Amino acid sequence: MQTKLKMNWSLSCVAVVALCTLLNIQPAKADEGMWLTMFLQRLNMTDMKKMGLKLSAEELYSINKSSLKDAIGGLTPAGNFQNHFCTSEVISQKGLLLTNHHCAYDAIQSHSTVKNNILRDGFWAKSTSEELPCKDINVSFLVRMEDVTARVLAAVKDAKDEGERAKLAAAEIAKITAEATKGTHYNAYVKDFYKGNDYYLFVVESFKDVRLVGNPAEAIGKFGGDTDNWMWPRHTGDFSFFRVYMGKDGKPAEYSPDNVPYVPKHSLPISLKGVKPNDFTMVMGYPGRTDRYRAAAGIQLDMEETNPARIKLRTKRLALMKEGMDKSDAVRIKYASKYASLSNYWKYFIGQNQGLKRLKTLDYKRNLEAQFQAWADKGNNAAYKTVLADLNKGYADLKEVNLFNTYRGECIFGAEIVQQAQQLYMVRQMLAKPEGAAMKGQVLGGIKESLTDYFKDYNAGIDRKTLAAMLAYYYKDVPKAQHPDIFAKISNEFDNDFNAYAEYVFDNSFLASKGSFLEFLDAYSDETLTKDPAYMLAESFARKTDEIRPKIVAANAAIDKGMRTYLAGLKEMNPKTTAYPDANSTLRLTYGKVIAYKGKDAVNYDYKTNIEGLMEKEDPANEEFIVPTKLSEVYKNKDFGMYAENGTVPVAFITDNDITGGNSGSPVINGNGELVGTAFDGNWEAMTGDLVFDKALKRCINVDIRYTLFIVEKVGGATNLIQEMKIVR
Ligand code: ARG
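Above: the input record for the complex with arginine. Below: its predicted structure, written as tokens.
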């Protein structure tokens, strides 16, 4: 699952663990939990061993020796080493990386043209010289982590409010990361856990030269499309390969033809033995974000207002993209990646809202809160007694500006021209200050450079229709007091005809086409800018945002502070309910087993799918279910090679590992430390999983490594890749 954070107990996590050991509290149990790799020995090893793990804690995470963690590469946007959009794993001593097809999707699309459409047809580099540089992707490996809670909490202890607390924390964190990386080529970041109760430092080595090595045709890599997305049973070959390169000195380097394949500290051997029910499995990777401790009021706001809005707005935006994509192959390529990422979370929000109702999540949360209140009332911590009321007040305040906030992101910025214009609004603010003005050339140069990529994947026709549709929704749905004054102009001059207004904007704005945009940047003039209709629209929204922002910030600050107190209280009430911190894009390990599930009354799902099931889904008339000719041929000839099991090829399997967006591409590893699959999705029955873990329903969907290698060899003919892997039969 692809992406899109925090602990204040009075005791640091280390201290809590020590306390647990002292009091002989039961160590954690499997399935639920995204565990920090540094605490596996104390929290999880006993349980993992019982379930079938043969490795030691030191073989999973070690600072001094090579360990499993060294094979886990977090995929980040270029220049960023801490916000992982996906996970990958090293599977050869030459830096070969395996991840999901949907994680490589953007890179594959950017290398596709109408003439050489590798997104549609697939791509297999037959030698390293054919690999394709992906300048937008970096991959980072964790060197070590450390508890820095005491330092950060000491720095913030006298903060007057949330704003000051954030500033003091940031200053201390800057010192910590500088010390941690001094004299090295490493990068470091500190993240907060349990909503700011705990802080951990992560030191990483981030590689900048990443190249695309191979991907199956989209009909395999995205088989089942949006229909099957977030669902089980699944037949998607959701995998692709990259390779990490390093400088000749063995250190990370910018792309250069002289770079050499990365020699990892550890690469995962691959097992062709497959899995059966109850087999131990663990997944190591970078889960992006969960909100398992979220208050009922927060869930209610999402359920009743935010999610329905997101769904409605995205439905329309997707329809407009699709309309454009269906008309032209060139537009189809341009919008493929934008469409896929928008639709992924569109369907997620639909599933989450259905699940919240079906599973009565609100009742569960309210019940927990009632228990907490009763417990707090008996104690003598004043903050605990009022914290739920504080949280409810925070959410009530947020609700007043929630539609504005949601529509700003999902609706107004849904039109890309407004995002571009907003960027120029910020530049103009910056240029008004002397220190900003000094950077004029650099900033405008940066924008100029970004326009090549931006316009490569842009279609003004789609964007114009989107702008018209989004303004109409905003006008109707957001309270009138939160309308920026541009709506008065649209009413006076266009009689609220949003199509006519959007047409006027696109006909007259320099932002609508690359040539005029570049011309503007070359001769930047405040006068031209402030008269531009797209700019005027963005500026009007920006002014309204400036007016409303303090309310949003205050409500969120109250919620953040409330959650920090609530979590500290929950921990005191019952340490088990807060055994692991929410996902925050840091390296975690989740362990569990291969296991089927009961979807609903009289519906029992098996734990694996195979290639026969894929052929049954084939529908040449439906683009989501096309089976490429080559795959049909191999299937007819039963040419399954060493990937067969009982006369078929297993395609996917499910486990109860606890994953979320950002874990996409993570390795599924058996008890011997061998790769058996690649995690890529969650299931429809448990779409509330980021809010509450439902043991009976939540499953992790994985591509069977044998299907991956079967496609690589038999369909892609890339035996060169198979040869560099270490395969255990
Ligand atoms: N649900 C998957 C995830 O979040 C992404 C699948 C991408 N496929 C798609 N049809 N959009 O990781």
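Notes for the reader.
The longest strand covers residues 137-147.
The two ends are 29 Å apart (CA to CA).
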